[in-house]
Amino acid sequence: MINRIKTSMLYLIAGSEMFGVRFVVASTELLWGISLLVDATIFNNHPHMVLDSFLSPYIWSFMFICLGLVHMRGIFRLQIHDKLSVVAILGSSVLWWWVVVTSFIISYPLKTEIIIAISCSWLFVRMEHINKTTHLEDKE
Asked: What CA–CA distance (Å, rounded) separates 85 from 136?
């Protein structure tokens, strides 16, 4: 019984495609981008004040919306291992970690931002693992 649970958990962590996680990341990025377009004063809130000093809220919005759309494109076309998707998930990972780290300058980031940053990083690690194993299988 323990071995079966252990095997199932290992498959979920290292063997699944993680479409759900990618969908949550894409949805979060689209919602952040849209909310920044609707209300550019969102960065006046305490944890995100430092982000406004780096770039305009509209530029942040553009980046979030573009990355969210690229992720949605990959999900709906089932093309999550192409080069554009790899670049997008790396970009998302860097962007979300930037939000988390800069939020630490002022106060503490929201827990959801930390979760999204970790999820993006894990998706990138998983994507590279899947790409390497897929290339190895293609060579055989």
From this structure: 20
Distance CA 22, CA 125 (A): 13
For 52-79, give one letter per residue: b (16+ CB within 10 A) or e. Answer: beeeebeebbebbbebbebbbbbbeeee
Give the 3-state secondary structure of residue 2.
Answer: helix
pLDDT tens for 91-112 read: 888 888 887 877 776 666 566 6
Other CB atoms within 10 A of residue 19 CB: 12
Say what the pTM is. 0.69
Q: Which of 114, 134, 133, 111 is nearest to 122 (CA)?
A: 114
Residue ranges of the domains in the chain? 19-139
Backbone angles phi, psi at 51, to 5 degrees: -65, -35
Instruction: Name, in order, each residue with C-beta under 8 angstroms of 33's C-beta and a sequence gap of 6 or more.
Output: 60, 61, 62, 63, 64, 65, 68
Separation between Cα atoms, residue 68 and residue 28, nearest integer Å: 8
Instruction: Name residues whose C-beta falls within 8 Å of residue 131's C-beta, 6 or more positions apart in sequence.
Output: 81, 86
CB 114 within 8 Å of CB 93: no
- Band of pLDDT at residue 121, cut at 50, 70 and 90: confident
